[in-house]
Amino acid sequence: MMQSGLLGTATGPAKLQNVTRIMEALTEDLQSGSLQPEKREALLEELKIYGRDPSFADPIFTKDGIATLTKHAFDSSSDATAQGALRVLCNALLLKPDTREIFVSAGYDAKACQRLQRSDNSEDEFLVSRLLLLSTYATNVNVPKLVKEHGLADSLANNLARHAARLSSESSSKAKAQPMVEMALTETLKLFFNATQYAPNDIASFEPATAHIITILRNAALPSQQTKTPLNPPTPFDPPFGLLINALMNLHFSSSTAQEAVYPSSSPSSVADRLVHLLSLSMEAYTNSDLEQTVSPLVCILSAVHEHAPDPVQKSIREALLPTEADRQDVLGKADTLPSRLLRNWTNPEAPELGKAISHLYFDMSDKDPHKFVENVGYGYASGFLFQKGINIAPDAIGDTNEVEGSDGVHEIRRPVNPITGQFLDTERPVEMPEMTDEEKEREAERLFVLFERLKKTGIIDVQNPVVQAMQEGRFEDLPDDEELD
């Protein structure tokens, strides 16, 4: 096919010929420096267009091609040249996974870290962070070495500090950020998560970034505060929020640095309140398939925040998430509240990891006390979790307990609840059923007998079989063989 007159539009063999010519010119330029800056930048722009489709662009993806592009990216004194080469490299590593190992094996990941240390603009931050992010997939990259010897954690913290400072300004937080600024933050947060994932023994090196992540989390505009339409509902985990939650996943909230950031002295509950609000928005916005991937990490972060929080913050979280009187007007999980939505997803078969995260959070909010746990969520929800954890609970823990210890140590009487469903007993509605025949009663007794015998074998409960007890007390009457049944 004949080459078109438009830049980078040739296809087939003509495209391969053009790509080869450009790569040869860029390689020769490394030795001679003969290309004028404008010409060099034009060649890189044309190469970027050709590199968007790997067919007939083989010279870009070879070891020599990657070497040429990397030298222009990291050794050039011109930012325009460097950024042009970085764009081609990013496309190459994205489209041809084999090039990632070429990049890492040649030590170019270390060079990328060095450039990231010098980056003070969003364009560089975006391109270099994406390049490093891609190099963490399907390669032998040594992230701990990049942290210890090439300042990766420090560079990420510095870039996050710049974003935090921008959002801390009232005028900046209300203004719409430039697209490249938002894209740079997105790539930095993605790289931060991967770096902490692959360097778990160096988490302390990432701790300085905690305060900046929290600042961004507190100051970024929530989706509900942005203009949305019925056809475009709020999606709470749109960037940066989902990425901010992921970035916090591998950090330790017990350190003094994290404590100051997560529980600021001026407003200790502000971070927890923001997380709870995000959770509320998310439980309304996402369906089953999205809940598993998006909301599970948020619930895990809330558990960590609750675990290491001072008492007032723990109280605030519990007041927001534990079932209230409104929830107990019906069987727990039926109301249109945040606690009920969480309980409904406790056993959601399409979101098993979310269910695990929710059950752990509620167990933690119950001081890891199985009795409080049952009181808070009802035995119906608590039993499976306790069984999986091998926690046996005494029979009296599931009785109609209506006496609790108040904050002042005085025992208070509260409205009794159904220990299984968590509903107030005085709001339960009687179930209208037709009178059972004697034959139906006998079948039901047999079924209950078998059920309780199976439960005793599992160890979930340790109570006397009620059918056996009734027989021992003479409450069952043997029917004569010739008696007619209704």
TrEMBL record:
GO terms for biological process: G protein-coupled receptor signaling pathway. It comes from the Eukaryota. Its main location: cytoplasm. One of its GO terms (cellular component) is cell cortex. InterPro entries: ARM-type_fold, Chaperone_Ric-8_A/B, Gua_nucleotide_exch_fac_Ric8. The keyword Glycosyltransferase does not apply. The keyword Cytoplasm applies. Pfam families: Ric8 (PF10165). This is Guanine nucleotide exchange factor.
